[in-house]
Amino acid sequence: MIKIIVCMKQVPAGTSVEIDPETGAMKRLGSESCTNPYDLFALETALFLKEKLGGTVTVLTMGPLQAEEMMRDAYAMGADDAVILSDRKFAGADVLATSYTLAQGIMILGGADLILCGRQTTDGDTAQVGPAIAQHLGLPHAAWVSQITDADDTKIQVKQDLASVTQISEIPYPCLITVEKDICVPRLPSYLLQRATAKKPVHILTFRDFYDQDESHYGLAGSPTSVESMFAPPEKEKQVYIEGNAIEKTDQLFSILKSRKII
Predict the structure, then answer these.
(1) Domain for residue 104, yes or no?
(2) Does an H or E element contain 146, and which?
(3) What CATH number is attached to the domain comprising 146?
(4) Of all helices (H) and strands (E), which one includes residue 241?
(5) Which of 130, 171, 186, 239 could form a disulfide with 117 if both were Cys (CB 3.0 to 4.6 A apart)?
(6) Does residue 74 sit in helix, strand or coil?
(7) Tens digit of pLDDT for each residue in 229-246?
(8) What is the pTM of this model?
(9) Count of domains in the chain?
């Protein structure tokens, strides 16, 4: 049996995001969000290993309390526990401060045999948080994992698709891996599990719960990255409906494509 912690994150669901003009950080509270797609592959990998080896799966995230919705979905997929690290002191964190905060949360939870992260998030897109967590905790890690080739109660063997080579790595527990989207197909949330876990608590940890009480290690204060400018991506093109018979539709489509200099 192994203890697994999956680090997950809510990301903006669309292109309509607000930027704080002073800090350059995204305003996440109250904005429409969804689960980071890569993290669903990490959760499914954890559930697969739990079914194979036995053990527990805990989902961990850092962010506003609205992340409870994501945690409820994780419960409905089969997670055993869910923890949110939420405090205003964590706001505005870059990769260093985010990974440090998550590492502190993992320490409070008593560590894990295996920590799983998605390869990257669709907002920050750095692919650095997972390896940085491992560095803070002093753990061996493997990134870009596309397949679990073997696993038992003491170690895990993985296939890594790197820039120019593919390699098989065997890592003893405790360790951390970040997974690719091709590693599995995430299961759909179960209605029966959703009903069964409806009253299951989502635990909240704040700065006061942390072992390290130095505020300069968290949030904007603990972020050495300087953001010179940040902007929301442009809105996607809206659908255009063309009416008429086949010839009329063809003429209209040709005119639209020509006006946009596509042809």
Answers:
(1) yes
(2) strand 141-151
(3) 3.40.50.620
(4) none
(5) 130
(6) helix
(7) 666 666 666 778 888 999
(8) 0.81
(9) 1
